[in-house]
Each structure stands twice: as C-alpha cells, then as structure tokens.
Write a structure and sequence with these properties.
Number of helices: 9
Shape: elongated
Radius of gyration: 30 Å
Number of strands: 11
Largest sheet: 3 strands, antiparallel
Strand content: 5-15%
Structural class: alpha+beta
Strand order of the largest sheet: 1-3-2
Distance between the termini: 48 Å
Order of helices and strands: EEEEEHEEHEEEEHHHHHHH
Low-confidence stretches: 1-11
Oligomer: single chain
Length: 344
C-alpha cells in the first residue's frame, strides 16, 4: 500500500508506527502502510461485489506470489477482479488515515524547509511594494497512531489441490481465490461437505432457547440443501469438463434425471455403485431439498410421488442422522460420477 505525492528533494518527515520511512521515487515520495495479520500470518479480504461483500482471509507468502497475476476471485460468489479491489473496510480506514498523516507531515516539512531556505529577507517588487520572508521553525505535528483492528478468527482453511493455495473460508466455497473458475470441482465439493459435517456436529449443542426459536430445524434443513446443492454443482461441472453441451432444463435437480443424463452422455449408470438404501436416501434428500427451497418445507404431491413417503400439506421433518446419511450417500455418488469422467 503506497502513498505518493511530489515534494522537493529536501523534504524529510516523521510518520506513525506501521508506516515505512519516506523514500524518494521517480513519482515523488512514497511510504508503505502495513496491514494487520493474525497469528497464522493471514489477513482479511472482502469481495468488492456489492451483492456479496464476503469476508475471507489469505496468507502473506502465497499472496505475494499471486499478486504477479493481479487477480483474485471471491470464494463465495465467484466474482473475479483486480487484487487491489479486495481491501476490507478496516484496512481502507487504516490506509486513508495513514495517507492523511503522510500528506500533513510532508506538507508541514515542505513549508518549514521553504521558510528556512528563504531566511529573514525582504524582496522588493516595486517602489512601494515589498514582501518580507520570516523563517519559522514550528515543531513538526505529532503523528497520530494508525487505526488498529483485529481480523476474524479462523473457522476453516481450504487448501486447493491445484497449487496448494490456502484460504480461510467463512461461507460455502465456489472457487479458489487464486484459481477462480479453474478450481477442481471435486475440491469445492469436498470442502463444502466438510463444512456441513462440522455444522451438523454443532446442532445438538444448541441451547434450549436456540432450539425453541427453530435454529435446530433451520441448521438441519440448510445442511441438507447445501449437501445436495454441492452434489448437483459437482455433476454439472464434471459434465461440462467432459466436453458435453449444457443440457436443456436442469437434470441435476432430480436423482432419476441425473441418472438418465449420465447414461445418455456417458453410457454409464452412476447409481451402479450405490446400495438400495443409499439410493433411497438420495431420492429423499433431492426431494427434500426441492420442498425446502421451493415449497416452504411443506410436503407436496411431487415429493410423495418421488419418494413414496410423507403426507401432503405437512411440514417435512428431518433428523441429524438422516442428513448425515445423505452426506455419506452424496460422497458415494460423487465418487461414481468422478470415476466415469476419469475412465474416459
């Protein structure tokens, strides 16, 4: 982070701790402003997409190398832009304050040096006009400390298999901040399912007040929808990577339609490696996601037709063990989908 301004060669001034001593450059004077890192050497980034503003953290050594590409991708929404557009609000406040201190100190020093160079003298501009210069040696203003802040604690760290890049993630993963759309789909799938495993482990530890407020139900339902969404996205990405055209409609929203699409395009049944109980669990999980996302969690005719279970008009009830079973089945199906692509 560099602050620049053109001042005479003789300027010298003091800056707050956290800013490097001023150095002369072809563009003027410069000073670097340090940013806070946590105990692991990670620092915050914020997505510049106003509809996202997702916070995540990167690690200094890797970021220095990645800056050569001048590009970052938000791991939550997939927005890609110039790496310098990803400052957090706290970082921008520190930079703005440091810039102000830089300009004030440099301006005071420049005026003091100019006054000393003129000394106590009078310059006549005409018979009745003169200018009197008086040297002033006012003390330099006391620099104020830079604003401090604390980065958020680390929840989970994603390690991209393509290059070993690390990122601290606080939301569902869409892409590696460095690899962007080239992130291996299976790595994204595995990270999101690991996040859901951790979330499910915390469900029963919720306070009675949280459970009474529906937080337990919400956590279980969201875990299921995100597991199935991750599986659907994996199928879609693998299908595209195999060079297949995007199919009409959305065959990834239903286990039978996904199976038919795979058979038609790859002549391979992805359900072959799954036992009957896993297929039944996946059918309920896919149907449950649709009900939660599109029908307010209330069982409809479509859900009963696809699963053979439930009562129309009643709210779907899910348990933690069921979602854990759906997660295991999702991983098994992901293995089958990936095996198809690997064998081609």
């Amino acid at each position: 982070m560099i602050c620049r301004h053109g001042y005479p060669e003789t300027v010298s001034f003091r800056l707050p701790d956290g800013m490097t001593p001023p150095e002369r450059t072809p563009e003027g004077w410069s000073s670097a402003i340090s940013l806070t890192v946590d105990e692991d050497g990670a620092f915050g980034r914020e997505c510049p997409n106003p509809d996202c503003l997702n916070y995540f953290k990167l690690f200094q050594p890797e970021y220095d190398l990645a800056r050569l590409r001048r590009r970052l991708t938000c791991p939550a929404c997939g927005h890609t832009g110039d790496d310098e557009a990803f400052f957090t609000a706290d970082q921008l406040r520190r930079i703005a304050f440091g810039t102000q201190q830089f300009l004030e100190a440099a301006g005071h020093s420049a005026l003091s040096d100019f006054s000393r160079s003129m000394g106590d003298r009078t310059v006549r501009l005409g018979p009745n006009v003169s200018i009197r210069y008086t040297a002033h040696r006012n003390p330099a203003p006391i620099s104020k400390p830079l604003p401090t802040y604390v980065e958020q604690g680390t929840l989970r760290t994603f390690v991209c298999p393509d290059g070993g890049h690390r990122a601290v993630i606080y939301d569902l993963l869409t892409a590696c901040p460095y690899c962007g759309p080239d992130t291996p789909p299976r790595a994204i799938f595995d990270d999101n399912l690991a996040a859901m495993r951790r979330r499910l482990r915390g469900v029963e530890g919720l306070s009675p007040e949280a459970k009474a407020a529906g937080e337990r139900t919400t956590a279980i339902e969201q875990s299921l929808t995100r597991v199935i969404s991750a599986l659907q996205n994996l199928a879609k990405q693998l299908h595209a990577q195999a060079g297949k055209e995007a199919p009409a409609g959305n065959p990834w929203q239903n286990i039978e339609r996904l199976q038919k699409r795979w058979l038609a395009d790859f002549e391979d049944d992805p359900l072959t490696g799954l036992d009957t109980e896993m297929i039944k669990t996946l059918r309920r999980a896919f149907g449950g996601r649709h009900v939660i996302e599109h029908n307010g969690g209330v069982v409809d005719v479509k859900y009963v037709a696809e699963t053979g279970e439930g009562a129309i008009g009643r709210r779907l009830r899910l348990s933690t063990p069921f979602v854990e079973g759906a997660l295991v089945a999702a991983v098994a199906l992901a293995d089958c989908l990936e095996a198809t692509i690997a064998s081609r």
